[in-house]
Amino acid sequence: MGYDYVVLGAGRQGTAAAYDLVRFGQADSVTIADRDGDVAQQASARLAGLLEGNAVLAATVDVADGAALAELLQGKDALISAVPYCHNLTVAQAAIESGTSMCDLGGNTELVWRQLGLSDAARAANVSIIPDCGLMPGMGNTLAVYSMGKLAIPQHVRVYVGGLPLRPRPPFDYLLTFNVAGLSNEYAGNATYLRDGKVTEVPVFTELETIEFPAPVGRCEAFVTAGGTSTCPWTFQRKLQTYEEKTVRYPGHCATFKAFSDLGLLEEEPVALGAVSVVPRELFHALLEPKLSFPDDPDVVVLRVICSGLDASGQARTVQLDLLDQYDKTTGFRAMERTTGFPAAIVAHLMAAGKTPRGAVPLEVAVDGQAFVKAWRGRGLTLEESVSD
């Protein structure tokens, strides 16, 4: 017996997640829904071609309409929310009302705490609500849990992650592979880390360092951005001394985008411009997005997790996980789509199969690291693992 899924959002990551559910999620049906019915139909048609006639159903729904959404979800086993994070609380409430387990791509920790506040209602409805299940926050945190399990006493976890163009174009050497609002969200405010066992706020665009990756990536820079650690610092504050995450970009990116931030272009309070009022961040998005959008350009995603601590004999050990994924010519999915959509699909399958706890639960608690890695590798995707002194 298979499962019935819904994917909300027929964009890049949602389409990739739907594809993975059909291939690996024991799906009887997958409905991909969008407020733009034409976009949903196009995604369904594309997947029908890729999956040799195994059509994904298309539906039209506005996720802001909780009643309509709950009606669409009736009788479904699990859903993936691939819509902008601002809608995820409404989606979680509709999921509980309809008795459908939910995971999402997340990205905003404040909103995640509000979702987790629905835990009693979710448990009463016998469903799982698991936020932040994309790339980062998401797979990086799950791989951190996996690496921690390799040590008797894990102490320090550092995660590095970035989506990059395979062939960078000046002047920004960056390729936008997800919603531009998500990029701004990473570059605003503070990151939340675990330092010396204490939850600590660290400003974005700080602690710049150089980091090397295998070809075709090479030398990059890594720096502090917001949101990637999600709830992990609180979850692990009695187990670890350090938990932190940095974003990886090609050299020069940090200085450029920090200058934009210093200029005030990421602010959300309107400013007067002659006779009109303008929100700086909205103007920034309108100007920036065309400069970073190259639909035919291939991309690459790098993810490195370094976990150090003690083994069972009390010896110092370091576990390092490395993932490098590239644009897939066969399916046309970009690396960012694969490394964001596929992890969410893995979690959705685990939820549908009853292998996650009921209630609203943080990802790092809800998903077993070994089960996730087994599923990831079972898709033929790479994950290098090494242990050193």
Task: Provide a descriptive summary of the structure in words.
The protein contains 14 helices and 18 strands. The chain has 389 residues and is an alpha/beta fold. The chain is globular.
Helical segment tally? Answer: 14
Largest sheet: 7 strands, parallel
Fraction in beta strands: 25-35%
Q: Report the structural category.
A: alpha/beta
Could you give a quick summary of the protein structure above?
With 389 residues, the chain is of the alpha/beta class.
Secondary structure layout plus pairing:
Elements: E1 3-8, H1 12-24, E2 27-34, H2 37-50, E3 57-60, H3 66-73, E4 78-81, H4 88-98, E5 101-104, H5 109-116, H6 119-124, E6 128-130, H7 139-148, E7 153-165, H8 180-186, E8 190-195, E9 198-203, E10 209-213, E11 218-224, H9 232-235, E12 242-249, H10 253-263, E13 271-273, E14 276-278, H11 280-292, E15 299-310, E16 316-326, H12 335-352, E17 359-360, H13 363-366, H14 369-378, E18 384-388
Parallel strand pairs: 1-2, 1-4, 2-3, 4-5, 5-6, 6-17, 7-12
Antiparallel strand pairs: 7-15, 8-9, 10-11, 11-12, 13-14, 15-16, 16-18
Helix pairs in contact: 1-12, 3-4, 4-5, 7-14
Features:
single chain; 389 residues; alpha/beta; Rossmann fold; Dihydrodipicolinate Reductase, domain 2; seven-stranded parallel β-sheet; seven-stranded mixed β-sheet; 14 helices; 18 strands; 35% helix; globular
